[in-house]
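Researcher: Re-running this chain for the archive, since the previous output was lost when a drive failed. Same request as before.
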Amino acid sequence: MIAKPDSDKQTAYSIQTRGLNLWYGDFQALKDVSINVRPRLITSLIGPSGCGKTTLLRCFNRINERYGNVTTTGEVTILGRDIYEEDVSLPELRKSVGMVFQRPNPLPISIYRNVLFGIRTHTHRRQYTRRQYDEMVESALRDVQLWDEVKDRLKEKATRLTLEQQQKLCIARLLPLAPRVVLMDEPCSALDAEGTERVETLISELKEKYTILIVTHNMAQARRVSDECIFMLLGNIIEHGDTSELFLNPKEEQTEMYIEGRYG
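Model: Regenerated structure tokens:
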């Protein structure tokens, strides 16, 4: 396990990195990254394309390692545990640190089975009763504001849902696993303006229970939903601070230039 369910109440930071470096072959994508992410806030990673935002995000559930030819040095601590220690279980890490991708990726099975896919993958088949599964499904779908829309359609294929509903379902799929951290990689990029607004509202409500780290290219979105922002450039952390302060009074010239649209 990474941590007990409520251990992030007792730690100053949900995520910390110290001297984190990452290479894809000979290319260094992250350079001496040191950050502190506070619990139960929404922290946005911002910066131009190719600056390392998504690579950094994927360090926190070690998904970068799936791509091969990746070398990582430094320290990543989540909920008080160094996730690169040899005895860290990747399945357990990914239960504690859930991830939502750019495009919704529901499985071509029923809405009901989608919500339970993660918990059934990570637990023994008979660990829960049907009633407990039913309660998990309802609770997760209520948490993502989807229950009233789909409660009479739970046996339908999830791929029949709208893109907005699919993205909410993908978030719901994480919740029965009781993650403490939720990573989001451009979660609204496939949605229209109305869908984006509703998913942003959902994200804002979820921070009451989860630490949320979100990658976004949308500066207006970062300002709307984030409590804190981390500005990255060429694999480096340039500035990290309160969102309103960073946008209105950036400390670094590079941050100011990016926010004003002078590059990126």
